Amino acid sequence: MVTSRHTGINLLRYVGLGLILVVMSYPLLWMFRVSIMDVAGSVAGSGWLAGGFTLGNYIDLITQAGLGRNLFNSALVGLSVTLGNIVFCFMTGYSLARFRMLSNKLLFVTVIVVLMIPAHIIIIPLYVLMMKAGLYDSYWALILPFLVNPIGIFLVKQYVETIPPSMEEAARIDGASDLRILFTIVMPLCRPALAVLAIQVFFTNWNSFLFPFILTSSDDLRTLPVALAMMQGHQAIDWPHLMAGSAIAVLPVLVVFIILQRQIVSGITAGAVKQ
Amino acid sequence: MRLSRSSSLILSLPWLVTFILFWLFPLLYSLIMGFSDYRLLATDFDWIGWDNYRELAADDNFLSALKNTFVFVLGTIPVTTVIALALALLVSRSFRGRGLFRAGFFLPSVTSMVVIALIFTNLYQRGGYIAILAGFAGLSPPEHGFLFDRATALYSIMAMDVWMSVGYYMLIFLAGLKAIPDELYEAAELNGAGWWRRFWSITLPLLRPVALFIIVINSIKSFQVFVEIFVMTKGKFDTATAVYFIYEQGLQTQFRFGYASAAAYLLFVIIAMFSIVQFVLLRRRRALW
Fold first, then answer.
1. Does some domain include residue A140?
2. Angle made by CA atoms A149, A67, A26, in degrees to the nearest 5
């Protein structure tokens, strides 16, 4: 009796969860399906089997539509910003964790200020600033403002606080320089936190639309999400090509997510629950 | 320690420089611009005092953008929070295949908003999948598609936003659930408390800080909704939101930097007040829960 009731509940749970899973994954699966349709055969709401099968859309995008350039831009900007965050968030986070003095309290205030202020408020002044500095529509405009971020500083600070300072003190007695201690002793110890930081920063930057959109204007400098949003602006939408472009934007994230799921999840929840 | 004030300052220099250049300066610059009629190609500022703010208060486009923003925030946040909590409860206990469900629910949150918006533009179109689903349910979908109708466009975008963000907040709820000690549930069970009683008297009160966090960050994010509006409707069919208005006035056609900055500051004040109200309300409910 008891076991049959149990399996009944279990079955119900799986059916329910399965239905939710279908709802949550359907749009992405549909994107992949449309991305391999023949252009001619695709109509709104056509079924999974209609529309034909081809990989030509992907090839067209890279060879003819210049999406390769956008892919390159996204990768270049993403990697530069990620590298900057690893180095600079580490330096600032370490300093926050190890020095307790007034200047550091003020530093902490700046971190909080940025966390609390909605980003929309700097859109216009940042645009004007980049114009005046002659950086508008350049890679610099896409990289410089995002080289350090307060959430990353927080992440590193919390991690460094769990490392006992005795090792740094021992190294100092042995005559190691400050820089050497920082980059050859402390930084390797922080690898788990820096990995989480790197993944988060890269994803955020890879997916970001608003700032790359307002800070560039030439096609050569568009990142992938901006290029995709622009493709859609034309009158008749060429769905198979648009969905193939979307798939190109999603695939790297998907692969990294599947491989590094645990780190990604821990990065998201680390900042959240402590507050 | 030999490392001192100067070292700490040098280490923080990259942050301080970016903070001053790309946050503090724009923040003040924008406040100042809000009191001027500065626009593209203007050579100097003309101070016009509170005129921008007065104009905003009478600007129908701004008021309707504010209305849409509030509809978006007030409509999505309760739904997202409740669904995220329900999902978290469904996958909090260990069972076979739990990892797959968690990952599947969370996946939309790591995908680019532009891509999600494009896919849903396809799903919402005339004769698209959602129209077919609506047909099954006996409803008649809008003639030109869900995004081309004033009655459905904004709500369709809101539904997509809920779909996209529940997985992320589910994860945060899961972390909160994990922090509740098992002993509490065991003790309650020994005293004969049923599932509902345990949920109401243990889970919900102890999750309150997490729920507050979720509601506050989701509000701040939702008040700034822009990308999905830009991609899906370009603000047409009564979907323009406050940030869309700022973009339109400041960077799309008019390049009225002063006017757009004033609107941005007004939205900032609204967001700040909203967050404070949430803090006060949810704090006070301690006695009720």
1. yes
2. 75
